[in-house]
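Q: Fold this one first, please.
A: Sequence and structure below.
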Amino acid sequence: MIPCLSGLKPSLRLRLFVLILGPLLIVASLLGYWRFQEAQATAQELFDRGLLAAALAISRDVIQSEGDALSPRTRMLISDAGGGEVFYHVTGPDGIYVTGYAYPPTDHTGLALEGDPIYSVAAYRGEPVRVLRMSEPTQIGGTIGQTVVTVWQRVSDRNRFAAALAWRAFSLIGGLMVTLALVVWFGVQLGLRPLDDLQDAIRRRSPNDLSRIRRAVPVEVKGIVATLNHLLRQVEQSIEAHQNFISDAAHQLRNPASALLSLAETLPSVASPEERARREQELISAARKAARLAEQLLSMERLRHGGEMNKTTFDLTSAAAEVCTDIAPEFLSRDLQFTFEPSPEPLVIAGDRFFICEAIGNLLHNTLRHGGPDMGEVRLRSCRAAGMAVIEVQDDGIGMSSQDAPKAFSRFGQLQPGQGSGLGLSIVQQVAELHNGSVHVGQVDRGTLILLRFPLAEPLA
């Protein structure tokens, strides 16, 4: 039974077998057809030569014996050389019957009075025969004239001889093809044995073993092994990243969860209405922080693995205005001056509106958390610069230099202890990279300036 990998897909062994033997079978068929035609031509030539030899021998005996019967040697020669029964008919000068069969084949064409013999096909006793007629000047019984010799042979005898030649050739070609098929089938099996060894080596590995495959393989398979090693390395890195994320997430969520639990446990024992209201507000604030942290962790994981981006074309200024509307109450509650300066022209970009709005919101939340107690003003501005759509967030707080940027934009990175999780700016950087943009810290005399850039898209219709 022919092995298959799965479904209707043939095995590699069968595929190679068909690819190798298929063209050879076509060539063998063409060679067999050519050999059959050659066998027929060879039989035709041999039998025609036999007829000519018989005609010459008969003509010689007729001349020598002046019309008497053929010599025993000539009869034996005709029998041995013909390869089949040979018939003959001889007429002397003036068309007088001399010897041979009384009635020659009818409907044959051509009558040689002198010169080269004439070959034709005629009917004799209801079956086709090959006929040769030749004439020579002779003298029989004192009469001088043309002696016409007619010899013929059944076409079926020739066909049997040609078929025998063809079948010998077919048998030889068939034997060679069968031998070659066996050699190819088992040769391919031996040639593919290194793949079986490689499969067995991979099967014996444990699920935790993602190290490189170092087994010696044929040159044709090195590319596959190299690609597999690259994939194993990527899988290993992905697993490590997931493990690190789970560890970091557990570490980051531990404190908010503990704070929520502590506030919730102390709330029933508070008797004073004022103190109870204050504790409830603290519990709500802690729950919001925990929810914000969970959202940021999920966003970080989605962005790190490509996420399901819902890319559309939209105006960046309108997205920034939407974020400002949502976050403005937090600035007002802290008595901060918050200004939004929209671009006078549309800034059309292509990307995921949700992630870009979250990135802008993270920049503003980062300013709220790390601007410091002396910060009094925050400004958000959208503009076009160097063919890019730009969001600028500037404050007059503690400030951050470009040298501090690598740490600030790293995951869970903080320049100083604070209330944040250290994920906000890292999410901003990943959003920028996924949209072929960039984020960096600008130079200002006071405070911090962060510029978020995105490539411009075609204007909206």
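Q: Good. Now the second chain.
A: Here it is, same layout.
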Amino acid sequence: MINIINYKKYFILSGTLVIVSILAFMFWGLNLGIDFTGGSLLEVEYTKSRPQVTEIQNKLSNLNLGDIVIQPIGNKSMLLRFKSVNEEEHQKILDKLRENKKEKTKSVKTTKTTDNEKVESVGKEQTNNKIIEKRFDSIGPVIGQELKKKTFYAIIIAIIMIIFYIAWAFRKVSNPIASWKYGVIAIVALFHDIIITIGVFVFLGKFYSVEINTPFVAALLTILGYSVNDTIVIFDRIRENLKNYDYNFENTVNKSVNQNLLRSFYTSLTTLLVLFSLLFFGGDTIKSFVLALIVGIIAGTYSSIFLASPLLIVWEKIGHK
């Protein structure tokens, strides 16, 4: 049996990651998208070649759209973010984007002579690079503020319900620590996972302009459920092993973690394989959602084994002092 419970080094690692994430959030903050700040998002696809970003900025410069964020997608598509606009302004933007310069292309005509020699004659024609509107979303600042509030309430309600559920599920476990303490420790592990995930996206937003929108909120709520599930499985094994309690709580917890170690690892690994497939081969619109899940599941697997279980031992030792 591997001695996994060496909580000091785990606490140092987790504490460092959490502190760095909090400091990054305080100084830089999240790069909020239009779902929270309000604004418009337009995605277009060019039938031929995509123009340069500077060319698009020049076309839209006289429309008073504020700060325009232009993000190339794939080979021919482009995502534009700007202030909230009405339908009339929306159509003006599309008209400006459709003002493509005519490109001269060579058409080659091949003929054969009597000597079977090929002769190429070059002509010239003019074609337009058309655009296809794939998506347009416009959200007012009032709706953005409302989404912020609802996001906060959703996370708080989910956390409170998790505490009540764990306290009820472990209500018959009172020795050597009370059942409600399992719930509190599970929530500490959840905060650990959420804070680290947010910290990663603070850095991504700062250095790679990754924006936070409603799919990110859905990812956080999914992480809450996934992480607490992994933690409860280990806690449940501890509860089973406490039926033959030998008055060595640290040994009981270490035994329980060892019994679930491979199960947690394999479950997370298979989930991550699917998520990485979606990250590399899925659409651009779900990449932030998938990336948040990847970070959260890695942090959640770690915290369930190396943070939540050692915290039980620490709390038990404090109770006997």
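Q: Anything worth noting on the second one?
A: The chain is about 60% helix and 15% strand.
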